[in-house]
Amino acid sequence: MPDSDAAIAVLILAAGQGTRMKSSRTKVLHEVAGRPMLAYPLGLAEALVPEHLVTVIGRDAEQVEAAFDGRSEFVLQAEQRGTAHAVMTALPSLADFRGDLLILYGDTPLLRAESVARLIDLKAETGASLAMLTSPEPLPGLVVRGADGGVERIVEQTDASPEELTIQEGNTGVYLVDAEFLTKALSQLDDRNEQGELYLTDIVAVARAEGLPVQALKLEDAEEALGVNTRAELARAAAVQRRRNVERLMAAGVTFIDPATSYVDTGVEIGQDTLIEPGVVITGDTQIGEDCHIKPHSVIESSRLGDGCVIGPSAHIRPGCTFADGVRLGNYVEVKNSDLGEGVKADHLSYVGDADVGAGASFGCGSITVNYDWSEKHRTTVGERVRIGCNVNLVAPLVLEPDSFVAAGTTVTKTVPTDGLAVSTGRQRNLEGWGARRRRSATAAGTTEPDPGSEQS
What we know:
Layout: E1 8-14, E2 31-32, E3 35-36, H1 39-47, E4 52-57, H2 61-67, E5 73-76, H3 83-90, E6 100-105, H4 113-126, E7 130-135, E8 141-145, E9 151-156, E10 170-178, H5 179-186, H6 202-209, E11 214-218, H7 231-251, E12 255-256, E13 263-264, E14 269-270, E15 275-276, E16 281-283, E17 287-288, E18 293-294, E19 299-301, E20 304-305, E21 310-311, E22 316-317, E23 322-323, E24 328-331, E25 334-336, E26 339-340, E27 345-348, E28 351-353, E29 355-357, E30 362-363, E31 368-370, E32 380-382, E33 387-388, E34 393-395, E35 398-400, E36 405-406, E37 411-412, E38 421-422, H8 434-444
Parallel strand pairs: 1-4, 1-6, 4-5, 7-11, 12-15, 13-16, 14-17, 15-18, 16-19, 17-20, 18-21, 19-22, 20-23, 21-24, 22-25, 23-26, 24-27, 25-28, 26-29, 27-30, 29-32, 30-33, 31-34, 32-35, 33-36, 34-37, 36-38
Antiparallel strand pairs: 2-3, 6-10, 7-10, 8-9
């Protein structure tokens, strides 16, 4: 965070229609690496602990306000007449504020807190009424600097001269501006332009006309200024954010075999010395402990894993799971809304749903919890050290007491006591000569027994 002690307020402009997204919901609620787009500038603003945090919203205002209830004051821009008009809509909420106002955008999710901190320091050091962030790549608005390095004006690419079109610095629209100057500058703007709108960029011209210096800080990485207006830009922003998420975790001691093929949501936490193999997807509010091994193509959603867990390959942990240390899930095992105790094992082809499983219990291949009765979900309780054989159906609600056993192929519908063995299959009986008798019967009837390899079989 910056060294400046000046009072600060934050205004986030998030009222755009987002028509190029071709979506039935507002643009800022589309997710970037597991979080709504607006969550990123809102989180950045909250980190500054501002005196005021105001968000201007438009389309789907009720949904946006509900998604971020209590995190910001929301102001509705019912008629959308440009970015300056959006700021003017919020001014009554800032009427008593004296200090610097930071203007952010709901569709620019990649801006780093470090860049904003540097901008705040720059304005404090120079005493400028207006400081702005710029991109090291051209944007629709190009930044024209004077001989002293300060900003002279913003020129739109459509109006730029051939010489100005060579400028490699773009206007991001992120401004840190003295609130008193901003109010005065907005009153001098007009909408005599092709779109009939009020543009916030025009406050730069107002400042220069009054002889006030305008300072600009060029971002180190142009991706911070990526604005999301289309599905393609949404995908680009998500890819950048996922890469950042993985880089943060690697810096904390997590190994990713192939970071480019690991999809990790923002907010996921993973302990040091955990190994993540290719094709893994980790989403939601997930926490994974230390020394775990997540094998290829496994999916983990909004769950908690203890230390030393081994998951996969191709395992699926659905939301609401809590695993103690040393849990082991193998190929094509799915677990949902379940608590697994220390050392629980399900090595392949099993489903454990809505279950509470004690330490040391194990599930054989093909064993499942039958948790749904077509109207309600029911829980299964598996005690410590229970041994469950292959191809078992555990029909909930059900209790398997500690140290009980279930034989292979059994359907369990009632409590199994400690040291008890549940068996629901009959004793095997071999009918000697059955095949020969079948063939003789077919011959006597004048029919031919189908070839086991034919299409009839």
